[in-house]
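Weekly modeling sync, notes
Attendees: AB, CL, MP (scribe)

Item 1: holo prediction request
CL wants a bound-state model with magnesium ion before deciding which constructs to order. AB pointed out that an apo prediction alone won't tell us much about the pocket. Agreed to run with the ligand included and paste results into these notes for async review.

Input as submitted:
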Amino acid sequence: MSRPFIQIVEVGPRDGLQNEKTVLSPEVRADFVRRLEAAGARRIEAASFVHPKYVPQMAGAEEVLAALPHEAGRSRIGLVLNGRGYDRALATSADEVNVAMSATDGFGLKNQGLSVDQQVEMLAAIVAGRANAEGEPGAAPSLSATLSCVWGCPFDGEVSADQVAGLVGRIAALGVAEIALADTIGAGDPWSVTKKVEAARRAAPDAALRLHFHDTRNTGLANAHAGVEAGVTILDASVGGIGGCPFAPGATGNIATEDLVYMLERGGFDTGYDLDALIETARWIGEKLGKPASSALSCAGAFGTRANS
Ligand code: MG
């Protein structure tokens, strides 16, 4: 019997690195992507088309993607905050564009200078531009949106399931096929994950949902488990658990890919990853960043690979 597949979107080269102090060159970042692909990653956030003045760690997005020409079965994602970023991404080999949005006005205004309503307008303009460009070669990488602060906002505080569902419904109505719900500051708990996933699904029954957790307060893997139990089959993770939280100095980053792979594979799911190669990559990037990876698996190693019966 084949095992159910959970797709992990590797976000280390973007969400991970952009929250690390050490700035790596585009060459090293492209090498990082290739190593992750060799370990089994098939969908990777490879670059962010944000102004380098704001995020110097992501400078040279075009150079990263120039080193990663299209390859069948591999998707390199470029993150954008606005139409200008979208146009930059379009000029590269990015296979997919992810539009960053926020569930709250406070974070949206701080992070990209746009209220929630203005973000929806921005996304609508991108979608309309894609419709006009239909048929032009290379004009339409696939499009997804990520909603940050779904489980809490550093400026606006608590975020309700209704608030999230309303926005998910508006994004889905624009025709965006995949929507990621992100716990940007790692404030969520497994029970609220269940609630918000159910609310989002009711608001957008046809959209694919993806979940993005940070392990800021040690609830990351429990939240991932709740998401899978709620029927979500796409999860973000960053190798080595690299990264952090801009609003919690000293905090750890995204849930670690190798820890998530271990949990899922032991639970009987297929992820397509080679756990040993992943742990090796976590150690490699730890050396590049000058600090050991914080993931449990890079310290403890794996224990068996078969499902725990
Ligand atoms: Mg994040």
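Recorded for review: The longest helix spans residues 116-132.
Action items: CL to compare against the apo run; MP to circulate these notes.
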